[in-house]
Amino acid sequence: MAQGTIKTYDETSRSGIILDDSKRELAFDADSFRQSGIRLFRLGQRVKFHLVGQGDGTLVRDLTIVTF
Description:
By secondary structure, this protein is mainly beta. Helix content is 10%, strand content 49%.
C-alpha cells in the first residue's frame, strides 16, 4: 500500500490528484472516491492507496485516510 498527500480535489467531479511519497502525481477518479466511503478530502490530507495496472492504465484504488 502506497501513501501520499491530496494535492487537488474537485468536490463537483469527486476527482483529484495525489502526490505520492516519491513525488509522482497520480489522478484519482470519482469511482476511486466513491469506493473509499470518504465524504470529503482536504488539500494536504495524507492518504493510503493501492495502484492497479501499469502505465497510462494505472488506477488509484482503496483510498483511505492515514490516521496517526
